[in-house]
Write a structure and sequence with these properties.
The chain is an alpha+beta fold. The protein has one domain (about 30-155): Cupredoxins -  blue copper proteins (Immunoglobulin-like). The protein has 2 helices and 12 strands. It has helices spanning about 5-25, 40-50; strands at about 30-35, 55-60, 60-65, 70-75, 80, 85, 90-100, 105, 110-115, 120-125, 135-140, 150-155. The radius of gyration is 21 Å and the shape is elongated. It binds copper (II) ion (CU). Copper (II) ion binds near residues 143, 147 and 150.
């Protein structure tokens, strides 16, 4: 049997590498979610609010400035809790949970970060803001009469 030319072997090797690597790469694209009770999630959110409060409020809701990493956000009819302040160039793993009905999470600086929110199921959204400014978190799924006003500021500051 004749030996296959080297470039042909290289070609097949590249195909195999692609077949193995492509699904692995795509997997990181699939939104992550996990089941969690509302009380447990609320406790994590309150601990974060207590630890990273800025002392400021927006519409009566505390503004927090957490370090990069895990950040908790609760959705309810018809608002979000707490108000988040993030820094440019930092990576946040936002855990979002609905307290009541189905909502949609969307943020005005990253249109790829839209998620459907079900009660008792936290969605993880990876965010890395790039430009300082005042953005908004909005509800992207009709949830009741005041759905259109279900929005909260998301403040992005320069890196400190
Ligand atoms: Cu909503």
């Amino acid at each position: 049997m004749a030996r296959k030319p080297f470039y042909l072997r290289l070609f097949w090797m590249a195909i195999v590498v692609l077949l193995v690597a492509l699904p692995a790469w795509r997997r990181s694209d699939i939104p992550a979610r996990y089941g969690i009770g509302m009380e447990e999630f609320k406790a994590k959110t309150e601990a974060m609010v207590a630890a990273f409060a800025t002392g400021r409020e927006e519409g009566g809701i505390p503004v927090i400035h957490p370090p990069e990493g895990d950040v908790y956000l609760m959705a309810h009819q018809f608002g979000w809790y707490p108000v988040l302040e993030m820094e440019v160039g930092r990576s946040y793993r936002l855990h979002v949970l609905s307290e009541d009905v189905m909502h949609g999470f969307a943020v005005t600086f990253d249109h790829g970060a839209e998620r459907l929110l079900m009660p008792n199921q936290a969605e993880i959204v990876s965010l890395r803001p790039t430009v300082p400014g005042h953005y908004q978190i909005i509800c992207a799924d009709y949830c009741g009469i005041e759905h259109n006003s279900m929005r909260a500021p998301l403040i992005v500051t320069p890196r400190r």
